[in-house]
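Fold it.
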Amino acid sequence: MLSIPDELSGLSAINVEDHKVFSDAVENNPITSHLHYFPFLNLFGNHVKKQALLFEQVEGSVLIYLLRQGQRRLRLSLYLPPFPFSLAALRHAQERMQDFNGSRSGRIVWVQESDVIPVARAGFEIFFKEEEFIFDRAAVMALEGPGFRSLRQELSRARKPGQVETRHYTSKDRKACIALVEDWWDRLVATGMKANGYSYTIACLEMADRFPQSLLNGLVVEVNGEVRGFAFSGSVTGTMGCNFLCITDNDFRGLPHLLRYRLMDEFPGLIRFNDSTDAGRPGLRELKQRFRPIAMHGLFGAREA
């Protein structure tokens, strides 16, 4: 993680102990995006080279900044609009970015759909980036009707290789899961697909027991006693969950479907799950479509006009 320059005094790294601050903030805002998921913010913000996520509270809102090493110097951006949304907090963030960057070049890295209009009204230019899959948990659990036929088939297929068992992740599974991450990363690089998430995935495996289980719940799947996949999910708000990570052995079909299904089953109090984007990978998009998303949630970026 980057060291914090003196000019950014008042900003702090996102520590595990800050989860209550973030949970209170998202409950007062119509949050849909997986980018507000606290374990992601903590792990991504502290375990990716040449960048850091830093935050402060202004006017009752949380402001998260992305500090990134550019070719010549550090650059500061707002990672998300203030939540709950506050125009005063946004103006404060603009001033901080302008002072640090030395120019009127402020940008917001990610803007969820519900924040597009207030951010545009604040004078930012909005542009579309990608979209996320939103699942209806109750519908997925029921698996009823022709729309879920392909998912039912995949779940059935997952059990065919042999003795299949899912159980909670523990630190004893770390070595086997890291080996799966290494194989997954090598496959992505070899095929030229978009590859990201390695550093914070490894950090998740190493730090999982530091988070409350309601925020970060992990499962592994074993086939004939060997770990062949793992996944983590948790709550974003009191009604929205996030399918955070899922990596499996490609030799066994249906395992990513089984892990997602089992993890969503562990959160009966949640109504919807955000399963992030397809990362531009057709196979991943097809997998997520089998869960019959009830919405494709848009993600945008913003820059000062």
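The chain is about 35% helix and 30% strand.
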